[in-house]
Write a structure and sequence with these properties.
Rossmann fold, globular, 13 strands, 12 helices, seven-stranded parallel beta sheet, binds 1,4-dihydronicotinamide adenine dinucleotide, alpha/beta, 16% strand
């Protein structure tokens, strides 16, 4: 099959196996190039391991510290005439590279919110790995079937209280326009908290504790975002922000429990805004990211998922370092994004952007190429005109 990108709005419905492998290899090469991360994790469980920040975390744990990794994710395998989702190919590529380097890597493709996947995970850890010393919780999901009630909760990206109007960009067509998003009601807010809040993370930690599969001194970490004022109504102060407040509540509860049973730590890392499948679905944010990339690249401060996670592991978690927390107890690896000089430049560009000057004032080209790379397109050294087998079994 010859696989080309088919972009439909903010998703690409095709993915290239060899391109995804090359994209994963780029991340591995970056982490290896930065040298070993000392005193790192030995046994890492990554929930949401196939793309974005979860994949970056898995690469940092394995190729920075030599950790055994178990990745949990929810990806669609190939079907007749249709390639798999990128996370499927990424996880195969990661596992092959890890095993070639002598590192244990196992994968579970299924619904992380379910009891069944948690049970399968515990079985693999007990059988093959031994107690887990790093739990990374990096899910981004549009829905969750609650394992106790069977209710299907759907998450939304909406403001609260009042409609929100701002500029946005259709990243595919390059059209800048104004968008108004209606506020969520209480039910939609509660649903978003049920999907993206902390309850499921707590269930994972409880399952590990009940199975006695948490190593003494274990670290548990989940990811959040804050960003600048102009995105607050749709992010920090919106439905997803409410879910992140709940994730922070869960971090404190898990931290207290880990400490009650010896040492250990749980916290939130606030990460940089990056092009991922999750962030491309948020209105306004892709325009912000296009401006941010322009500014951060010009200032020599740009990072991707692997760079962010390598820096998080090397400067906050391991290498003899301790996490430096903000006043709310969060690690801020978004520190470069939030630098006042960076944000001042972004804020100066924001009101000027139009469809006509989008290419000059923003890094829309960089946004698009990063977006396509998520699906394995535009990687150097890949022949996209060559026939390639889309059916690849999970490694
Ligand atoms: P992503 O879309 O790249 O990755 C999501 C992961 O969750 C994938 O591995 C996917 O397979 C997995 N997943 C989704 N539903 C699942 C389910 N039911 N069962 C098992 N696995 C499932 O997302 P991204 O952007 O890496 O987000 C991860 C976390 O990082 C989220 O908490 C997000 O809010 C946070 N974050 C993202 C930022 C960004 O700009 N992309 C910035 C700061 C934080």
């Amino acid at each position: 099959m010859i696989i080309k990108p088919k972009v439909r709005g903010f998703v690409c419905v095709t993915a290239h196996p060899a391109g995804c492998a090359a994209h994963v290899q780029e991340q591995i090469d970056y982490v290896k190039g930065k040298g070993p991360i000392e005193n790192g994790p030995r046994n890492a469980l990554i929930i949401g391991a196939s793309t974005g920040y979860g994949l970056g975390s898995r690469v940092a744990a394995a190729f920075g510290s030599g950790a055994k990794t178990l990745g949990v994710f929810f990806e669609r395998p190939s079907e007749d005439g249709r390639p798999a989702t990128p996370g499927w190919y990424n996880s195969i590529a990661f596992s092959q590279a890890a095993r070639a380097a002598g590192l244990y890597a196992a994968n579970i493709n299924g619904d992380a919110f379910s009891d069944d996947v948690k049970k399968q995970t515990m079985e693999i850890i007990a059988r093959d790995m031994g107690p887990i010393d790093l739990v990374v919780y990096s899910l981004a999901s549009p829905r969750r079937t609650h394992p106790r009630t069977g209710v299907v909760h759907k998450s939304t990206l909406q403001p609260l209280g009042a409609p929100y109007t701002n500029k946005t960009v259709d990243t595919d067509k390059g059209i800048v326009s104004e968008v108004t998003i209606q506020p969520a009601d209480e039910a939609a807010t509660a649903d978003t908290v049920a999907v993206m809040g902390g309850e499921d993370w707590e269930m994972w930690m409880q399952a590990l504790a009940d199975a006695k599969l948490l190593a003494p001194g274990a670290t548990a970490m989940a990811y959040s975002y804050i960003g600048p004022h102009h995105t607050w109504p749709i992010y920090k102060d919106g439905t997803i922000g409410r879910a992140k407040i709940d994730l922070e509540r869960a971090a404190r509860a898990i931290d207290a429990q880990l400490k009650a049973h010896g040492h250990g730590r749980a916290f939130i890392s606030v990460n940089k805004a990056l092009v991922t499948q999750a962030s491309s679905a948020i209105p306004v944010v892709p325009l912000y990211i296009s401006i941010l990339y322009k500014v951060m690249k010009e200032m020599g401060l740009h990072e991707g998922c692997a760079e962010q996670m390598q820096r998080l592991f090397a400067t906050h978690l391991y290498n003899g370092r301790s996490p430096q927390f903000d006043s709310e107890g969060r690690v801020r690896i978004d520190d470069w994004e939030m630098r006042p000089d960076v944000q001042a430049k972004v804020a100066a560009i924001w009101p000027q952007v139009t469809t006509e000057n989008l290419a000059q004032l923003t890094d829309i080209a960089g946004y698009r190429s990063e977006f396509l790379k998520l699906f394995g397109f535009g990687l150097p050294g890949i022949d996209y005109d060559a026939d390639i087998e889309p059916h690849v079994p999970m490694a």
